Amino acid sequence: MAVTMRDVAQAADVSIKTVSNVINDHPNIKAETRERVLLAIEKLGYQPNLSARGLRSGRTDVISLIIPDLKNAYFAELADAVMTAASKRGKVVIIEQSGGSRTRELEILHGPRMRMVDGVLYSVLGLGQEDVGLIDIPTPMVLLGERIFHGPTDHVTMQNIEASQAATKHLLQRGRTKLLAFGAHRNEVIGSAGLRLEGYRRALQNAGLDYRDELAIDVQSWHRSDGAQAMRQVLESGLEFDGVVAFNDSIALGAMRVMQDAGLRIPEDIAIIGFDDIDETRYSLPTLSTIDPGRRQIAETAVAMLLERIDGAAEATPAREFEADFKVISRESTAIKSAEDSA
Amino acid sequence: MAVTMRDVAQAADVSIKTVSNVINDHPNIKAETRERVLLAIEKLGYQPNLSARGLRSGRTDVISLIIPDLKNAYFAELADAVMTAASKRGKVVIIEQSGGSRTRELEILHGPRMRMVDGVLYSVLGLGQEDVGLIDIPTPMVLLGERIFHGPTDHVTMQNIEASQAATKHLLQRGRTKLLAFGAHRNEVIGSAGLRLEGYRRALQNAGLDYRDELAIDVQSWHRSDGAQAMRQVLESGLEFDGVVAFNDSIALGAMRVMQDAGLRIPEDIAIIGFDDIDETRYSLPTLSTIDPGRRQIAETAVAMLLERIDGAAEATPAREFEADFKVISRESTAIKSAEDSA
DNA sequence: CAAAGTCTTTCCAACGTTGTAATCTTCAGC
DNA sequence: GCTGAAGATTACAACGTTGGAAAGACTTTG
């Protein structure tokens, strides 16, 4: 059977509690005793039983990360960043995939596995602002994403409006004026799509241009195939445009592929910028300009906030909102020689 | 505080053990009693304490998946497949990233978290055949990948040699004869690189062609940037070739990008096929022919085997080897009009 | 209608750990 | 050398659950 504290205690000729004290760095242990215990631990290869510890202490040192889909590059990279941040602080991460489904998200939030974790990072997709009442669970939680603001818990997100505005401005500065807002969700006000559309509008306004509704292209699901599909329709419709502000990188890449198939040159004929800075954008042909949403900062902050809540260190603090810094990443897909191209 | 069995028992006016029996579907419970208990559970919102259950039963229903890197599309998709397979059987997955480092892999294998899981799926990268002695841990384990064969545990892998041979043949059939083996590791015999090179050689041999060592291109790390880098050197060297058998999709995509930059047309000038069938291959320009390694089958089989070991159902069975079915996926990057192009 | 089953429920102990409080040891101060 | 305080160690109980076996209820059978 597995080695327990009992065995270690026996080997070191101390009580079980002393072993526990050594392991947990309690004060008041004679150096000689500590030595002896550590030696016994080493010799027997003792490793604590985490279930027992969890039972007794009420802590498991496990946190849960709820995301829509690991196969989606953005979330894979987010998961990696979260796991790295958590690992630094000695926590393990369980990833739960929701598929972006409302039902599934609720299932997970209220499921039995919540009882096995100390806290949750919940990247909301299926639920929305109107569901804010449903997310008040006993487990400490930090929200991610753009679907729910001002909920009962801390919230970490990116600067959607500002970033989208900057992306749009980036194209405007390069002399493009007929810009598609690619990936809109017509009836959405908040949510990534709604906010990014708002940023797009503001940039146009600042530049003294009118918002033209036909240039806002709906793409329901933000996968590459959807981007390709939507772009195919745009081209068939004969709509005129010279730039694309895509609301994420995947649909940008899908659209880019379709445009190239149709003989359009990027960036000469059409300039395009995406959102998320997924790894692939550095290797596409042409490389894709995009927005770095501050993923690492988001992960670090979210984990730190969650641990504060778990430790009770932020008990009195009201729900916090944090927006990460973003950056415009300029690559080939917007590399246009232009008089207006400023440094 | 949280609701426990004690509260449920009280509410249903039965003993704690009866509640436990109901939850665990023990036989011999009066229908009326079961009803009453379930009602109480529902009403109080009881959820079992998994730490306590784990402590008492020795089972946590958690399995660990050790992979090199989540940001790598192949492993993200593998993780997704494993999580789906595990979820079907009521298990949770903890992902541990090793970075492919030998030290880190050993750390994880012998770390305290192994004590919190029922079993491990270990996608070997840092260790090798010579380390076979180091992986004999008490936790049930199933190995994945091509680094260790005939270890002390079950092993699930793809048909590397056969698949690589088929990929090579695919190009040969299309009239290409000067084929790069792209992604070789010179001194490796087993390991994906070694096996895939072997498949490449066999296909040449079957076609009556000589193996030319200068056509085997070393690419140490199989990331896109490494593929790009290696291809740049090949082009500079002036080496002549008309086809590329890339040992994974990422380096294929990197290489493709570089070749296109250099004005080479794909597939007209150079035909190229990859390995892994990652999602991106369906959307690159041109779309990339590749090998579907049977990822879903690998995940399903590995999880099933692991659970058999955990349940002790396969106690007497010696270590098993399983090779998944593969498929050649023909896409644009090898779509060459040719007399020899067979159906 | 008693004996012998079969179902159903309960009691008790244990899993391995840590918090609390009590006990034992050491050492300074006089 | 004695007192008291601080330092080091230990005993005990408890966390919430489940396995094993005993006890209670009900049914069948001769």
Automatic annotation (TrEMBL), chains A, B:
Pfam families: LacI, Peripla_BP_3
Top-rank lineage group of the source organism: Bacteria
Domain HTH lacI-type: 3-57
Annotated Gene3D superfamilies: 3.40.50.2300, lambda repressor-like DNA-binding domains (1.10.260.40)
InterPro entries with a match to the protein in the record: HTH_LacI, LacI/GalR-like_sensor, Lambda_DNA-bd_dom_sf, Peripla_BP_I
Keywords: DNA-binding, Transcription, Transcription regulation
MF GO annotations: DNA binding
PROSITE patterns: HTH_LACI_1 (PS00356), HTH_LACI_2 (PS50932)
Protein name (database record): LacI family DNA-binding transcriptional regulator
Organism from which the protein derives: Arthrobacter gyeryongensis
